[in-house]
Design a protein that fits this description.
11 strands; globular; 6-stranded mixed beta sheet; alpha/beta; 21% strand; 5-stranded mixed beta sheet; 10 helices
Length: 329
């Protein structure tokens, strides 16, 4: 484990008109953060092409055009977009956590991608339960994605937004001894109370897990908010709610958080603080009582089709016979 890791949490606006425009902003932010010495860079939730803000302010009957546009601009994995990010990770030797709207044939998913410093894709996971309005937009992930992976900066886990309110999902990562937890929220949503709740949630997870938390939220400019909905009353739901922050295992901010505007938050993670915290309280070690309480985690990927070749149950001599005749034999 490196003694110190320089982390960057990115709070910028997407390009609400094109996937290509947002990817360009991602690549520019990677370059800027890397120039500042960042070894880990975390972007907001479903940042590419953009978070589906429309679903929060439009009634279902009016969402069709924007939902279809999101389908057209969504990312497949792998794709030219993911390869571009992987190349940037490799060229700058940085670990990158990116939120995308992933298209898998006829469905969209809230997906987190972790690229290692060599450009390899170490994790692709889907949000297990979309929240409230998001259920009109995304499908559900599975337990296979609740996984901690080894990276150049340490053992990393990731969750998106209100997955942090599923304590068992968090515990699944804690039990795999995550050292750095990457998280992200949409930002520019709900209002000031959302930012306050994010801060409480991130600090609590850092304390309970005994890990660092690097959290990124997005940002919308006034022109972008107006383009999503013209009603000033509904536009209030597309402001504030930002809390880009870096938290130590002791629950403290590494640097003052970003709560408005665009910017890149930089902080140095002193990895020795992990042992300092866990010496006192290790939720999945000496502070656990597994004989009383333990988590059962189904890590099997969800499957909508399982193909079984019955011919493998019969010898070659029997394969040409009708099924009933072969069974009798």
């Amino acid at each position: 484990m490196p003694k110190t890791v320089r982390a960057a949490a990115v709070q910028i606006a997407p390009d609400l008109t094109s996937r290509a425009g947002t990817v360009e902003r991602v690549l520019n932010a990677i370059a800027e953060a890397a120039d500042k010495g960042a070894e880990l860079i975390v972007f907001p939730e479903t940042f590419v092409p953009w978070y589906p803000y429309f679903s929060f302010v439009l009634p279902p009957m009016q969402q069709g055009p924007e939902h279809l546009r999101l389908y057209e601009e969504a990312v497949t994995v792998p794709s030219a977009e993911t390869r571009a990010v992987a190349d940037a990770a490799r060229k700058r030797s940085v670990v990158i956590v990116l939120g995308v709207n992933e298209r898998d044939h006829g469905s969209l998913y809230n997906t987190q991608l972790i690229f290692d410093a060599d450009g390899s894709l170490k994790l692709k996971r889907r949000k297990i339960t979309p929240t409230y309005h998001e259920r009109m937009v995304w499908g559900q992930g599975d337990g296979a994605g609740l996984k901690v992976v080894e990276t150049a900066v340490g053992r990393m886990g990731a969750l998106a937004c209100w997955e942090h309110y599923n304590p068992l999902a968090r515990y699944a990562l804690m039990a795999q001894h995550e050292e750095i937890h990457a998280s992200h929220f949409p930002g520019s949503l709900v209002g000031p109370i959302f930012g306050e709740q994010i801060e409480v949630t991130m600090r609590h997870h850092a304390l309970e897990s005994g890990c660092f938390v690097v959290n990124a939220t997005g940002w919308l400019g006034e022109d972008q908010i107006a383009s999503i909905h013209p009603d000033p009353a509904l536009q209030k739901g597309l402001r504030d709610g930002c809390m880009t922050c870096i938290i130590t295992p002791e629950g403290r901010h590494v640097a003052p958080p970003l709560t408005s505007g665009e910017g890149i938050l930089i902080g140095d993670l002193d990895m020795r603080l992990i042992t300092k915290r866990k010496r006192m309280m290790d939720s999945v070690g000496h502070y656990a009582r597994p004989e009383l309480l333990h988590l059962v985690h189904d890590t099997r990927p969800a499957r909508v089709l399982e193909q079984i070749d019955l011919s493998k149950d019969f010898s070659e001599a029997e394969q040409g016979k009708p099924f009933e005749e072969a069974q009798d034999a």
